[in-house]
TrEMBL record:
Organism the protein comes from: Sediminibacillus halophilus
Keyword RNA-binding set for record: no
Top-rank taxon: Bacteria
Any one GO BP annotation for this protein: L-phenylalanine biosynthetic process
Protein's name in the database: Prephenate dehydratase
Domain Prephenate dehydratase: from-to ranges: 4-183
Site residues (Essential for prephenate dehydratase activity), renumbered to this chain: 176
UniProt keyword annotations, A-Z: Amino-acid biosynthesis, Aromatic amino acid biosynthesis, Lyase, Phenylalanine biosynthesis
Record-linked NCBIfam families: PRK11898.1
GO cellular component: cytoplasm
Length: 288
């Protein structure tokens, strides 16, 4: 049975690149916002959602994490890491001069990733934030020649834009992690990508803020020699000083180490929730 895949749209976003890399032949639907995409899975309008999770330069996409924790608790069933290449896109009627650009549109993360280029070449332009890089390209395609978008080559192709400047991002080693969310435990990845590492993500809440609490939590992993690739605290939204922790462990969930960690942390009064154990896929730079 063909699955329906949802993603942050419109066409031309990096999320769409991630979706096309993982899924071939499935029906795909774009959504204007990350919450709308995740709600569609929860309401069973689609089977799978692909949403941005973390960027190497700008860090965690907090909207994704917070919505997943506080609103719609969907399991993470896979992850794909996509190289990010940002370009300056203009419509075909625009000149080839930077000085004629009066407005630049893009997602806030894309704007931040290109800060030095904008500072050096486009100080005269007003910056406008959009819901996605694809939406920025769509707007510029319908705008006058003084508008430009920051986006990828797929966006340029989808909306008939020309690339005025390539690779305008500040740092070359820029990647974004995308989470694949689904109520199904093992969605079929149809692209032929071979999975690399395995990862497990845990949500841990502490009983109260006391000295040495985080140290005790990390010790449960350390003495078992479990490698953690990320530890992040986020507010529980129940009052100042109340936080939960998202911890990524670089191995698949097993029936030996993880139950031991869970029992040890629960003995300390912590609550441990499994958010997903899943394969990690990696796109090559030449695929973007």
């Amino acid at each position: 049975m063909t699955k329906k895949i949802g993603y942050l749209g419109p066409k031309g976003t990096f999320t769409k690149i991630a979706v096309d890399s993982l899924f071939n032949g499935e029906e795909k639907a774009d959504y204007a916002t990350i919450p709308e995409c995740m709600d569609a899975v929860e309401n069973e309008e689609i089977d799978i959602a692909v949403v941005p999770l973390e960027n190497a330069i700008e860090g965690t996409v907090h909207l994704t994490i917070d919505y997943m924790i506080h609103q719609v608790r969907l399991p993470i069933v896979a992850e794909i890491v996509v190289p990010i290449k940002q370009h300056l896109l203009v419509n075909e009627r625009a000149t080839d001069s930077f000085v004629d650009i009066a407005h630049v549109y893009s997602h806030s993360h894309a704007i931040a990733q290109c800060h030095q280029f904008l500072h050096k070449h486009l100080q005269q332009a007003d910056v406008h934030y959009t819901t996605s890089t694809g939406k920025a390209a769509e707007m510029v395609a319908a705008s006058d020649p003084t508008a430009a978008a920051i986006g990828n080559k797929l966006a340029a192709k989808e909306y008939g834009l020309k690339i005025l400047a390539e690779d305008i991002h500040d740092y070359p080693n820029n990647h974004t992690r995308f989470a694949v969310l689904s109520k199904q435990e093992e969605p079929v990845i149809s692209s032929g990508h071979a999975a690399g590492t395995q990862k497990t993500t845990l949500l841990i809440t502490l009983p109260s803020d006391y000295a040495g609490a985080l140290h005790q939590v990390l010790s449960a992993f350390a003495w078992r020699k479990m490698n953690l690739s990320k530890i992040e605290s986020r507010p529980m939204k129940t009052g100042l000083g109340n936080y939960y922790f998202i911890i990524d462990v670089n191995q698949a969930y097993d029936q030996v180490l993880f139950p031991g960690v869970k029992a040890e942390l629960e003995a300390l009064g912590c609550k441990v929730t499994l958010l997903g154990t899943y394969p990690v896929y990696q796109m090559n730079t030449d695929e973007v």
